[in-house]
Amino acid sequence: MSLPNGYSINSPPSESGEDEEPLIKNNPGKFAIFLFIYHVISDNNYQRRRSPLLLDFNEAPICCSARLNLAILMFLGFSVVYGLRVNLSVAMVAMVNTTDPDATKNSSVIHACPLPSGAENGSQTFQQPYPWDSETQGWLLGAFFFGYLCTQIPGGYLAGHYGGSIFLGLGVLGTAVLTLFTPLAAKWGSYWLFALRALEGFGEGVTFPAMMAMWARWAPPLERSRLTTLSGSGSSFGAFLALPLTGYICEQLGWPAVFYICGGAGCFWAVLWFAFVSDDPRTHRRISDEERDYIINSIGPQVKHLFSGTGHGWTLPLLSMMLSVPLWAIILTQMSANWAFYTLLTSLPTYMSDILHFDLQSNGFLSALPYLGSLVVSLLSAVAADILIERKVFSLVLPAVFLVAVNYAGCDHILTVTFFTLSSSLGGTSAPGVYINQIDIAPRYAGFLLGITNTFGTIPGVLAPITKISVFWVAAGINLGGAIIYLLLGTADIQPWANPDEEGVRQQKRRGESIS
Predict the structure, then answer these.
(1) What does the mean pLDDT of the chain come to?
(2) Is residue 55 in some structural domain?
(3) Which GO terms describe its cellular component (predicted)?
(4) Can you tell me the distance from the alpha carbon of 96 to that of 132, in angstroms, rounded to the nearest whole number?
């Protein structure tokens, strides 16, 4: 395959007899850029999106609207949420004494890259009081997700019935308060810290299902991707902001200050949330009549139960959900995408320190670059996703390609960071697909479905930090499998078990059978 400027991808010699330069072999950086451009170009050749809810309602401008204010406040909230989640990944470098024999006895890390001449490993320049070995560190980094698993489904169920604002607010507030006790728990021992991190995950597990339950009431169909992705992309922004700040705070104020600052930020956000947010447009104190009518009317009769004050009710079509192929496509795809995401989230700072030997501030900054790319790409993708029907299978394929490429980058710092950034950035295009797909197939159960899919999607958060073999190869293979599953089984059509009209017919049939 010939490319501009005389390059080729493993092509045979040209007709002129002059060998073209193989781009993969001699210029992996340019090859990475080519794949990125190809992804962007090919990702825009899609059909116009068809929606049964495109009705002629008078659209209320989104600028300065209550729904945009809600999205911005959610964005800030999920920035705090991910700051609370990832701060330990970098702080661990400053907490663990890597020169202690106990800290390396179970280590499977090989220092593949030599230290720069006259330099010391950046992770060994602080007072590091804890001799935790690599296995203990892996369990501590994964502890959060043990608790996170437990409250996804209950949180989605309760948020769908009662409304999501109280659960989102209390989830962030509870996690923030617990974070303040992290230095004390670490002082008491690794078991106490494990338990505390698991409790933090328990509190934070309700946040994403609560967000989805709220957007089922607040987001007009043509704005779903933009509003939901804007709010959810706070997670990437939070990781991007927290990772370098954690390194800086550790150097300037000591690692305990990281947890005090993050916990305080979460408490402050919770005050703003409870002061300004309502569960649905009908009860919002500062929304205009025009915007309220637009939201309620444009969402349509399929989700009219959301404004009846009863949510989705106490009964759920659980058997139909369990047998739903489109739902399982979302579950498996989210698991595969999250495996790569959590691998980078928990392992990248340690990789930067132990393999590439970056100092703590550089470690935090460079570990944050993939999340900046993911933030930018996810926001750009959200704009297109409200217009286009295609759900971007390449957003799972190409991240896998670049994770594999990391294994061949060797000790080239620039190339390694570039591949990590491209992998995470291209993975950001999946947000307007997989997450919004849950509202597409079952808007009335959106919060509960996100609880289900996020429960399965959290399993990689438990397993990825304790994986011992070829973590980037494993993540790439799982990502590729998810792309194939989503291509074959994914759909955006509302499912029969989520249609209230069909549900009413089924209930009438059951009542008739019981009478006869």
Answers:
(1) 75
(2) no
(3) apical plasma membrane; basolateral plasma membrane; lysosomal membrane; synaptic vesicle membrane
(4) 6
Burial of 88 (0-12, 13-18, 19+ CB in 10 A): buried
Judge whether 31 lies within some domain.
no
Cβ–Cβ < 8 Å for 32, 421: no
Q: What is the pTM of this model?
A: 0.70
| 317: Cα separation from own chain's centroid | 27
Q: How far apart are the C-alpha atoms of 493 and 364, rounded to whole Å?
A: 42
CATH number at residue 213: 1.20.1250.20
Length in residues, the chain: 516
DSSP 495: P
Residue 467 maps to a domain? yes
Helix-strand-coil split of the chain, %, nearest 5? 75, 0, 25
Asked, for residue 44, whether it belongs to a domain, the answer is: no
Q: Report pLDDT digits (tens) over 318-374.
A: 888 889 998 998 898 888 888 877 777 777 777 777 777 777 777 777 778 877 877
Q: Domains in the chain: how many in total?
A: 1
Q: Which of 283, 322, 281, 321 is nearest to 444 (CA)?
A: 321
- The whole-number pLDDT of residue 394 equals 54
Spatial CA neighbour of 409 closest among 9, 3, 113, 36: 113
208: containing domain:
66-106+133-515
Which phi and psi (to 5°) does residue 118 adopt? 75, 10
